[in-house]
Fold these 2 entries.
Entry 1:
Amino acid sequence: MADLQERKIKDAQMRATINQKLVETGERERLKELLRTRLIECGWRDQLKAQCKEIVQSKGLEHITVDDLVAEITPKGRALVPDNVKKELLQRIRTFLAQQSSM
Amino acid sequence: MSLHGCEHLTSLKAAYGIQPFYIIHSYFIACSSIEARRVKAKSCFCHTCRYRGLRVHACLSCVYFGCYNEQHIHNHAKTKKHNLSVDLSYGTVYCYACGTFVYDEELENVARKQQRAAAATLGIKRDFAPWEPGQDEIELLRRNPKRRKVSENSHIGLRGLINLGNTCFMNCILQSLTHTPILRDYFLSDQHHCHMTANPQQCLVCEMGRLFQEFYSGVRTPYIPYKLLHLVWTNARHLAGYEQQDAHEFLIAALDVLHRHCQGQGTNGLSYSSSHHCNCIIDQIFTGGLQSDVTCKQCNNVSTTIDPIWDISLDLGPGPGSTTAAIAAGSNLVLSAVGDPALPMAVGPALVDLPTASLSPASGFTNSPSNYEPTSLLDCLKRFTRPEHLGNSAKIKCSNCSSYQESTKQLTMKKSPIVACFHLKRFEHSTGYHKKISTYVSFPEELDMTPFMSSSRNNSNGYTNQIVRESATGLSCDNKYSLFAVVNHSGTIESGHYTCYIRSHKEQWFKCEDHVITRATAGEVLSSEGYLLFYHKQLLEYA
């Protein structure tokens, strides 16, 4: 039990350190740009835009907030991200970490 | 919602100007300096629960960061009456009094400027932006209210072509070109501006544009491409007349004429070879760079040349100068086949064409699998890009050691074209005889050209860590292609017929035989003989 707790704390620290490195070096922005491009290329953006339009139209512009839309569209958006896009991003992060650790 | 914010933002701006937003945005959202990035990396977390991640907001009135998801920023806004905050992930401004995001033109301009500067410091090219209609386009859309929606099973873009007397060679090339996605986008978005101002009726590019209009108009009766045929006849005289022509020859001639007309050059203009540094749509789509490395055996000096190419012609049948090796390999197979009764079926095809092997002297190459007859497109490409010993009789003067030496030559792809056209050389014209090679050559629906790129020859790709490099090359999509058209020839070298398969959407294949179009399966396409294979890049770079 204590081990699990310890590991959770360690994981969180690790995540924070990695995130900090990604931001500091600007790599996070590069990854974001890559992701943006890939999502547009594979039609994800258009798909999501169409779904958002549908939701807004069905509820009426006056009765919907950004928060409603975010709550409804987020799970769909996550599910629609193609596997190869996720793989490519993961690969890029691995590459970045390998380079960082060899420095 | 307007572009002028809300009354709360207006009063905040009246009191403090845009300074608070400016500072927060430049340090925590779009950083242009190493120092700012360091600050951002350290301090972007919720001051209440220390959460780092998406949707942490910064108060625009005091130094407080709080997360949106857990409502810590909401609580702050309520207790302190600080109504406005900025989302640290996206730079959008939220008003808690109005309960919604507010959009202010002035702040958005600041944000855009800083984002551009930040991207520039990291070397990110932000060329890609989703299309937004401009004033002209809005007007155009308003005046033309009819919309055509392309669904998965719509037949738009499919149209038969009447055979004008042995013109199936032209019809199948036209079908392939009209279903080239990037060429279609170019013509349907009306990007061609005619350069043949003196005689626009003579412009083949304009005629192609009209062909695209005809194909995508929704009309389903067969189209008669007589004007196009006439234009090709007048511009490429060797194709004129009512005889059957070679589809590959027609393709190259058509690309050449299109390329020349793009630059406003008439029939007597410069030819392809002398004016390849061109940015016309044909060159943008079809031109690849073929690198040839000649290595001197004496001093290992490599001299490199790069030539532009529109297609890759691949030899079938046993490789040149490898007769002995091929026969040796063949007889090995025969021996093993005799020894093992289960094998003869498998080796059958490899032996059929052995007598056609040219009887030139054998080179020093043995063991190379490429001395066999290629049975797949990948085999052909491997053979195309393998180092070739130029032999004793073809000594080349080395520029480094200034002597005539034996050398090896290797071809690789320096630049992969957007559309890769492979020509399987099925028609053999040797002295004394003409013959069609009907060997089955398998080809894949998805093709990765990475192993045949010049960068694979040098074998580093910039990664120092080998494991990372290997997995990265396996994942890279830069050189991945999808099959979208196949031209087939049936019959003999003297008389035959051309048909083609085209892909209209993903996994939607159709067979085009002049005016008849029928649905086909991917399996049929992949098991067809294949004469010209058209592959389209899966991902395009925005250079």
Entry 2:
Amino acid sequence: MIIDFTTAAYLSIAFWALGSMLGIAAKSSTALRKTATALNLGGSLIMIAFIAIYWHALERPPLRTLGETRLWYAALIPLVGLLVEYRWKISWLKYYCMGLAAFFLTINLLHPEVFDKALMPALQSPWFIPHVVVYLVGYVLLAASSVAGWHNIFLTYRMKDLKSNDALAHYLALLGFVFLTFGLVFGALWAKDAWGNYWSWDPKETWAFIAWLIYLGYLHAVSYKINRLKLQWYLALAFLVLLVSWFGVNYLPTAANSVHTYQQS
Amino acid sequence: MKADRRTLFQKPWEFREAALIAILLNAAGFAIQYSLGGTGITMPEWPMNAITLLLSACLILAVGLSYRHNPFIAWLGGIPLGLSLILTLAALSFIGGMVPQGTAGNPTALRLGLHSIFSSWPFALIVSLFLWNLGLSLSWKLVPFSLKNLQFILFHAGFWIALSCGIFGSSDLQRLVLPVQEGQASNQGYIMKSKQAQEIPFSVFLHDFSIEEYPPQLMLYDPKNDRLIMNSSQAIPEVRAGATAEWKGISVKVTDFIPSGLPGKEGTPVPADPAIGIPFAKVRISGAAGKGELWLSTGGPMLKPGAVDLDGLFLFMVPGSPKSFRSAVTLRDENGLETIANLEVNKPVNFKGWKIYQMGYDEESGKFSTLSLLEVIRDPWLPAVYLGFFMMLGANALFFWNGIKKSGASL
């Protein structure tokens, strides 16, 4: 490989860190702010380039193992933060997003993956990419909504809460839910082709269903006009359930029966 | 706020009553489950399940439309109860996600249905109430109909249909394992759990079963610590002519590779038909424990795998994992109608209302297996469940679109 993961990960983290520091220091200087954005963007572009090279070397999409999905996550979540800044002029979200991305890259640095090209027959399906990518985008958006929730709670205690921040958290959760539903249904349609059942209460399915119900609950809590601070807490904590369904499942007593564990280590 | 705090069950009912009802219903469900000794619910089969479902749907619709102003019915189809049931379903699923589902476990847990939560009484009771809640709210948005409610209708109706048809239809699902030997036909299926034999209305003749494997891999094994030694790039080296692999102080180069061969004269293998041959690789080992050039094989039915002792570490070659496996079959029904098909994982074939899946093979024989394990499934309710799924997807597409429009205004 032209660049190895360690170099790419440190480069990305360095870009994000530099961009963040410059962004905070820039204040009103447009030139500095633009440089900061370019650096932040650069961090993600390095990850995207790495994924592309990795994809090529693996001869299959790097979406099989949890470590591989974390790469996509690290590349995409800062982009959500930057997009929100570009579209709605809310600049704080991107810092949290880059922090999360750096955190997930650090996990991968601490637990290097075994480089294995094999893609078992059950995963060789046209559903593979849509199912995983839709879920990844959903997770990215819901992670951002959770971050926004925490930020709003923090602001509330400092008496600085803003309506637009609440709306942002809500909109991210709504979008995330849409993607979660698509991921869940795509998964069911794929499962029918691969295993003969669209639903079999596999632990991963069960947890994906729980996460989906939790966000469905959020949307109903919103319609029920529950106190806004409670809603922010709900969003902030709901992401923990999503984390269990993303990779916590592998560490639960039920994992042994799961058809969703594609890792040897 | 505190001054006008409602007492429990003061009308109109809200979330607290809903939460209490959900808790009581769960308690009742677990009590029934326990007193029945752990036997869960069995669904009636066709046509009773369809009749029950249709009557329930009509009843819900009739109640919803006739009593929409009754405070109790309004609560029964309202958001507070819906929210409490969604969270209760999540809590019951949480049990299913934490406690291994199956038939083994602590006797009390088994009797309470914790190991089969999704066919347990509490789950059934909560789902029933949920279908009422969902159905009632749907009836109020359906009549009078308005295009504005399309997203609501699609999502809620889709969920109702997928959930109810998935559950009520589960008793009509037939799922059998069908083992077939090369050159033979079979219509003898087995129910996986009970091993009970059952005939299917067509036969499957297996012409050929074949496996394609990934290239074999080189591994370095440390018997003292019982572990594989990873090289610096964390890659398991694939065997190809010209491939190299490096471990600390040991360097291996594949100088020749025969994907399918048989042992020949003086230890030099010769290429052979893939149906009988096994992979051979000529490797040059250099470094501290250098051994010069020698042949390695993955082993097969007639040959033991070779391993090279490198000062207490063993270098060996393992067969690649299966890349694909397929069965060439002829399906033949009672009237002699025939179809030729290729069955492969992820590519099931439809025949006479059944779906036929490539499931497995004799794994001990690996690529020399002449046995193919197929799975035949008949699920007459599938189109209804899929209709529900697609309605939900449609609703979500609308949700996405409307969400963008709305938030553009509010942000």
